[in-house]
């Protein structure tokens, strides 16, 4: 049951994001996070922390979003999940940009892009494009 609770928000992510309000989504993600911790699954724990960061960003609770994104980044780095680390850095950049911390957002985006390029992840193109747009806006 804990494994189902842990994996559902990831497997059903699009359904949750399309059909539920942010608070309801957060409830699902918190259940998944608790299950990942109970099962000692650090990879899912990192992923759910990152998803919670984005959910709180969408609610406008930026400081809380930063806490979740930072914790996700630490876990992903700790377990050696390069894609997860890049995703956590990317999520952090989105939160920082929304907070108005453009320089820090660009720095995190550069870090994420480096990793995405190293592992040849298809997200590299999207991240590169956003980085160029942000650099243009700040110059």
Quick summary:
The protein has 139 residues and is an all-alpha fold. Helix content is 87%, strand content 0%. Helix 5 runs antiparallel to helix 6 and helix 7 runs antiparallel to helix 8.
Reading the helices and strands in chain order gives HHHHHHHH
Return the average pLDDT rounded to an integer: 88
Shape: globular
Count of individual helical segments: 8
What is the second-level CATH architecture?
Alpha Horseshoe
Structure report:
The protein is mostly helical and 139 residues long. The protein has a single domain (2-138), classed as Tetratricopeptide repeat domain (Serine Threonine Protein Phosphatase 5, Tetratricopeptide repeat). Helices cover 87% and strands 0% of the residues. The chain has 8 helices and no strands. The protein has helices spanning 2-11, 13-19, 22-38, 42-59, 62-79, 82-99, 102-118, 123-138. Helix 4 runs antiparallel to helix 5, helix 5 (62-79) runs antiparallel to helix 6 (82-99) and helix 7 (102-118) runs antiparallel to helix 8 (123-138). The N and C termini lie far apart (51 Å).
Core attributes:
139 residues, Serine Threonine Protein Phosphatase 5, Tetratricopeptide repeat, single chain, globular
What are the SSEs and their pairings?
Blueprint: H1 2-11, H2 13-19, H3 22-38, H4 42-59, H5 62-79, H6 82-99, H7 102-118, H8 123-138
């Amino acid at each position: 049951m804990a494994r189902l609770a842990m994996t559902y928000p990831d497997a059903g992510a699009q359904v949750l994001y399309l059909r539920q309000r942010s608070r309801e989504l957060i409830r699902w993600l918190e259940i998944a996070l608790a299950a990942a911790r109970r099962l000692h699954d650090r990879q899912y724990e990192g992923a759910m922390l990152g998803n919670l960061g984005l959910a709180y960003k969408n609610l406008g609770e930026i400081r809380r979003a930063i806490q979740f994104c930072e914790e996700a980044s630490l876990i992903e780095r700790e377990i050696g999940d390069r894609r997860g680390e890049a995703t956590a850095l990317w999520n952090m950049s989105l939160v920082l940009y929304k907070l108005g911390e453009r320089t820090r957002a660009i720095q995190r985006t550069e870090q994420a892009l480096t990793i995405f390029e190293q592992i040849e992840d298809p997200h590299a193109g999207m991240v590169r494009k956003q980085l160029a747009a942000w650099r243009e806006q700040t110059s």
